[in-house]
Amino acid sequence: MTHQAQDDSSARFSSVILQVAELDCAEEVRILKDGLAEKPGIEKLDFDVMRGRMDVQYDAEHWNVKRLLEAVRSLGMTAQEVIETPQATAAEEPVRHNYKRERALVRSGAFLLVAVVIQAWESGGLAALFGHGDGVHSISVLSILLYLISISLGLRWIAPKALKSVLRFSADMNLLMTVAVIGAIVLGDFFEAAMVTFLFTLSEVLEQRSVAKARRSIQSLMSLAPDVARVKTEEGIEEVATDEIENGNICLVRPGERIPLDGTVVQGVSAIDQAPITGESVPVEKEPGDPVYAGTINGSGSIEFRVEGTSGSTLLNRIVRLIDQAYQRRAPSEQWVDQFARWYTPTMMLLAVAVMVIPPTIIGWSVESATTWFYNGLVLLVIACPCALVISTPVSIVSALTAAARNGVLVKGGLSLETIAKVKAVVLDKTGTLTTGMPSVISVQCLGDITEERALALAAGVQNHSTHPIAKAILNYVEQHQGIPAEFAQVEEIPGRGISGQTDGQTFWLGSTRLATEQGADVAGIEAAVANTGVNAVVLGQGNQILATLHLQDQLRETAAHAVASLHRLGVAQVELISGDRTNVVQQVAEEVGVDAWKAEQLPEDKIEAVTRLRHDHKLVAMVGDGINDGPALAAADVGIAMGAMGSDTAIETADVALMSDEIEKLPWLIAHGRKTLRLIRQNIFAALAIKVIFIVLTMVGFSNLWLAILADTGVSLAVIANSLRLLRTKTS
Ligand SMILES: Nc1ncnc2c1ncn2[C@@H]1O[C@H](COP(=O)(O)OP(=O)(O)OP(=O)(O)O)[C@@H](O)[C@H]1O
Ligand SMILES: [Zn+2]
Question: Radius of gyration (Cα) for the chain, nearest Å?
């Protein structure tokens, strides 16, 4: 089944996802790219090494799925079409394992061991194994046979790929290994040939296992939501599989159980531990009307909730899907490693040939010099394997993204993570970022002959159409005072200023003093009243007449000042506060949290401008906002970070980074986490290269050993992977 790419302007292009069995290393990505990307009619190739998938966009006039599968086969791999159901995520699929290769590995190891024992017994000690290059070891036909069996068991997985690489005229590591093994056999070094085959296969298997481990950690996130839930039916309470539960069903959750689906509490109160999604350490009190999310843990109260959506559409599900997409966006450091491997492998092959030919030419060709330097060339081939380099970076990034998600920070790809690590300036929005974003009305003043009741009815009526925090504040206030919102029509939001609408044929507006001024009203008195306070004034008016003023105040988050201090401590040069709110309010907040600069009364377009200016002065800029009237500015920053994204679908989908909770202190944590990831990647690359350099030097001076070389290569591969997987265990605070 292929689906037409809908967002593509020309409808001719189709796309298909192929599961490629052999695709587990950047090496295969290269093979597929080289073999396919340039073909006419292939529009776009995307790779997901973690899942072994390739996404192909192709011209339906030239290609079809069958031809694509054949093309993949001609490159020495086997593929299968993936049919995605809407809610299927990678996390739900079993992680692939190449069990055949693992079994072959075990057998090859067993034959190797027996051969070694026999050879040692026959020649009176292990020392005989390590002499090389003379081709006349005391070795019996039996142990040669056992070595050869061991070699062929392993080589069966390497040689076919090597052959393809020869046919493509592009050296890959399978070719390096195959040549080294055959070379060692030619020299009569059966033990070493078998050792190289075995250890190379072992490292490939272990690499694949570690990638699987990093991926599984995201599966564990999915498994947070229980598979069955207790549903209220007419007959009583029934246990039902969560995929069969429908929108609107009522579910019961006992104390200590996990919430099975998303919904709204209808009965009972309880504190719910939302850490699995938000990373918040403190449980959140929930009462009827409050939202609950699949995967979170019910505290000590029993609750009933009404299901909203299905098991495929939960917040948890969406998070997992987004992380999954994040895995596929390649980070700059991954691209760098790819580029590196592209010239590194052929260069090492040339170097190996040079080592085989040049020294004997200088010192004079003889059987001895030829075999010695041929052997040294083989050692070079073995250490040339770029696998440690190639695999460690994606494992680091996947682990880092997973760890962040577990701490309630959704990072949409390696690029965002690397950028945030290098950020030089941070722009903070005020409402909802530094403050709680839940202002409350503290007083109402009416002018002229309008009653307070009528003013509140009008204000609430027009705000019924808005999602701005001020609207919520006014609606709450009116509800508390038993007011009834008027019916409004033709409501129009005026971004960064306010809102207007009609009721009973009359037009009213509500908003900032700027809006009031623009309507021709005189706001001098209102301005004076709030001049040196942290209070916001919102004006209700008709034409150029002011009818009432509402005073609102928002609470500073307790952790805001500490978070800003942490940013400074991390070396962020400039932390700026940019807000649409009034000067007096913004100034007070700015002084309390200790930002380097602040700007008030900024319209959405001014906010973009401010971000652009900072990008010019400081290169990499992160902007944190709540998504209300600052969406475009978030998009203009190098990294846009949405706060409190749990309640806002658009924020989760569009921001580069979504902080699921309202905790601003997650921002410095994320910067530190990003830096740690980059540091680890660099450490890994350095370690892998250092080992190689050491062995290259040892070999050049004629002081090296085949099986030591492969042991070092395998060791360093495993060490860098283990190092990368450490990121999985990262916790906040
Ligand atoms: N729906 C609305 N109802 C009433 N006033 C509004 C509304 N929308 C905007 N305003 C007015 O416009 C001003 C600016 O709004 P904007 O959303 O840009 O910033 P803010 O939420 O006050 O602060 P920040 O930019 O820090 O989030 C508000 O302070 C308020 O006076
Ligand atoms: Zn390798």
Answer: 33
- Cα separation of 59 and 79, whole Å? 19
This complex has an ipTM of 0.93
- Please report which helix (H) or strand (E) contains residue 727, including its range: none
Q: Whose CA is nearest to atom 22 of ligand 1?
A: 581
List 24, 189, 429, 554, catalytic entry: 429
Handedness of CA 335, 336, 337, 343 (dihedral sign): positive
pLDDT digits (tens, 9 = 90+) for 21-60: 777 666 677 788 888 888 888 888 887 766 778 888 888 8
Is the per-residue pLDDT at 730 higher than 60?
yes
Average pLDDT over residues 665-676: 94
Residue 713: both structure tokens together: 């290569």
As beta bridge partners, residue 409 has 659
CA dist 191 and 113 (Å) reads: 10
Say how many Å lie between the CA of residue 713 and the centre of ligand 2.
6
Q: Where is average pLDDT lowest: 7-16, 210-219, 258-267? A: 7-16
| Gap from CA of 536 to ligand 1 centroid (Å) | 9
> Considering every ligand atom, which ligand is closest to the CA of 535?
1
Distances in Å between the Cα of 611 and the Cα atoms of 108, 263, 577 are: 60, 37, 11
Instruction: Output the residue whose Cα is nearest ligand 1's atom 21.
Output: 431
Ligand number nearest CA of 688 is 2
Share the mean pLDDT of the chain.
Answer: 84
Q: For residue 652, is pLDDT > 90? A: no
Residue 721 Cα to ligand 2 midpoint, Å, equals 12
Domains present along the chain, CATH in parentheses: 3-84 (3.30.70.100), 99-218+326-387 (no CATH), 228-313 (2.70.150.10), 409-431+571-660 (3.40.50.1000), 440-553 (3.40.1110.10)
The half-sphere exposure of 344 on its side-chain side, counting CA atoms within 13 A, is 20
If phi over 0 gives left and psi between -120 and 50 gives alpha, with beta otherwise, what is residue 731?
beta
Helix, coil or strand: residue 609 = helix
Name all residues whose Cβ lies below 6 A of ligand 1: 429-431, 466, 468, 470-471, 496-499, 510-512, 536, 538, 579-581, 628-629
Q: Which residues contact 341 (CB under 8 A, 6 or more apart)?
A: 26, 27, 30, 386, 389, 390
Residues in the chain: 733
The whole-number pLDDT of residue 219 equals 66
295-325 confidence digits (pLDDT tens): 899 988 899 999 998 887 888 888 877 777 7
Q: Residue 158: nearest ligand to its CA? A: 2
Residue 137: pLDDT band (50, 70, 90) is: low
Residue 429 bears catalytic tag? yes
pLDDT band at 566 (very low <50, low <70, confident <90, very high): very high
C-alpha 200 to ligand 2 mean position (Å):
6
Buried/exposed 435-453: b ≥16 CB within 10 Å, e otherwise: bbbebbbeebebbeebeee
Query: Each residue of 475-502: b (16+ CB within 10 Å) or e?
Result: bebbeeeebebbebeebebbebbbbbbe
